């Protein structure tokens, strides 16, 4: 068995793990990322990058790479399938990034991998399957397999960025508690045959929410609320929902991704335990409606990297600093969860859609729009 050392080991090389690795490397903290996959994701997956994340990218020096690959959404429309109920102009936001950037995850991961490897050329170990973790008072060891061989890496901390089914969290015995909502959705990317161009549209017909967002390469993401979970989603099934509810015909268009999903809200009992720390979906899950999840992970990674740098400067305050990280991130996640629940309620099936129409018009055609603008762009969370 080959043994290695690293100041910090990050388990999970997705968007959050890679971003955390960049944050740590920029602060001069040695880290190694273990990633089970051989290559970055091949589909669009998470795509909404909010202004708060773009501000962090700018501080780290690579925001332009994202701006080159994504589409800037500066306006959102609320529509009931028959008429426009109101609009939000994101360019009314303060700051340089007065828009939401639509950037498919396959671009996001490639940009982050390139930036991490610039800072730490040997720091990413792919095709590494973590098998177990063992802690002592002063260090933590992580065993993983790669190409049929077993390795062990020893660190001061292990950080679990390995998603909602986190092995790191399970190995450490940290409880993950929450609930599953009855809400279900079908989602797909299609060629864009609409006239909306770079505008996002939220349709609110009585049968339930339809979201529509522009993507690069003249594609458009469609997300549709369904009455129950669809085990075998197809482009035609999604197209049938859209045609029936709002009249837009997607049949025959090229589709590059189709999936269905349910909604959960879970949080770890603790975000750290001895030498193990959790970040991203390993520590919390919120509803994907509103596109907050990946951005929440980046915010948490930034806060955690700052905390670890403080510990390096003041090791005697380790527990206090990590407790502050947990308190700050827990507060942010709680706010984001409430916002996500509101988004789901607004998009639910309605027996009396007239009342929702009046509420939406009240929000979007009065000073309340300023509040809605901040909510939709994650302003005020961090």
Describe the structure.
- The strands form four sheets. The protein has an eight-stranded mixed beta sheet with strand order 7-6-15-16-17-14-18-21, sandwiched between helices. A six-stranded mixed beta sheet has the order 9-3-2-13-20-19. A four-stranded mixed beta sheet has the order 1-12-11-10.
- Helices cover 35% and strands 30% of the residues.
- With 382 residues, the chain is an alpha/beta fold.
- It has two domains: 2-47 and 104-175 and 269-345, FAD/NAD(P)-binding domain; 180-264 and 348-376, Alpha-Beta Plaits (2-Layer Sandwich), CATH 3.30.70.2450.
- It has ten helices and 21 strands.
The CATH homology group name of the largest domain: FAD/NAD(P)-binding domain
Report the mean per-residue pLDDT as an integer.
93
Distance between the termini: 43 Å
What coarse outline follows from CA principal-axis ratios?
Answer: globular
Quaternary organisation of the protein chains: single chain
The strand count comes to 21
Amount of beta strand:
25-35%
Strand pairing plus helix content: what structural class?
A: alpha/beta
Unreliable parts: none
- Helicity range: 25-40%
Q: What is the radius of gyration?
A: 21 Å
Looking at CATH, which topology of the largest domain would you report?
Answer: FAD/NAD(P)-binding domain
CATH architecture of the largest domain: 3-Layer(bba) Sandwich
State the helix count. Answer: 10
Sheet having the most strands = 8 strands, mixed
């Amino acid at each position: 068995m080959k043994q290695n050392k690293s100041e910090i080991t990050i388990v999970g090389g997705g968007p959050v793990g890679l971003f955390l690795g960049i944050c740590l490397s920029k602060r001069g903290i040695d880290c190694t990322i273990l990633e089970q996959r051989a290559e970055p994701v091949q589909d669009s997956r998470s795509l909404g990058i909010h202004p708060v994340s773009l501000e962090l990218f700018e501080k780290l020096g690579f925001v332009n790479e994202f701006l080159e690959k994504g589409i800037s959404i500066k306006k959102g429309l609320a529509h009931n399938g028959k008429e426009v109920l109101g609009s939000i102009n994101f360019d009314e936001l303060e700051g340089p990034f007065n828009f939401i950037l639509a950037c498919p995850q396959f671009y996001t991961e490639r940009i982050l991998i390139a930036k991490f490897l610039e800072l730490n050329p040997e720091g990413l170990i792919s095709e590494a399957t973590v098998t177990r973790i063992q802690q002592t008072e002063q260090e933590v060891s992580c065993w993983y397999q790669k190409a049929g061989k077993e390795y062990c890496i020893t660190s001061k901390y292990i950080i679990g960025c390995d998603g909602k089914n986190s092995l790191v969290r399970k190995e450490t015995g940290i409880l993950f508690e929450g609930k599953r909502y009855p809400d279900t959705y079908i989602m797909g990317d299609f060629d864009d045959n609409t006239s909306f161009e770079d505008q996002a549209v939220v349709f609110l017909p009585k049968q339930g929410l339809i979201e529509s967002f522009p993507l690069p390469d003249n594609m458009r993401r469609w997300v549709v609320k369904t009455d129950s979970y669809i085990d075998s989603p197809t482009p035609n099934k999604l197209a049938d929902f859209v045609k029936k509810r709002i009249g837009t015909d997607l049949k025959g268009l090229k589709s590059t991704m189709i999936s269905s999903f349910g909604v959960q809200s879970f949080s770890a009992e603790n975000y750290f335990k001895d030498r193990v720390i959790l970040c991203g979906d390993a520590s919390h899950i919120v509803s994907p409606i509103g596109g907050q999840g990946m951005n929440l992970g980046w915010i948490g990674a930034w806060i955690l990297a700052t905390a670890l740098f403080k510990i390096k400067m003041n090791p005697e305050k380790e527990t206090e600093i990590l407790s502050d990280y947990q308190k700050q991130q827990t507060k942010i996640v709680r706010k984001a969860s409430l916002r996500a629940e509101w988004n789901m309620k607004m998009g639910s099936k309605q027996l009396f859609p007239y009342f929702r129409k009046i509420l939406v018009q009240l929000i979007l055609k009065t000073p309340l729009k300023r509040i809605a603008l901040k909510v939709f762009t994650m302003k005020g969370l961090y």
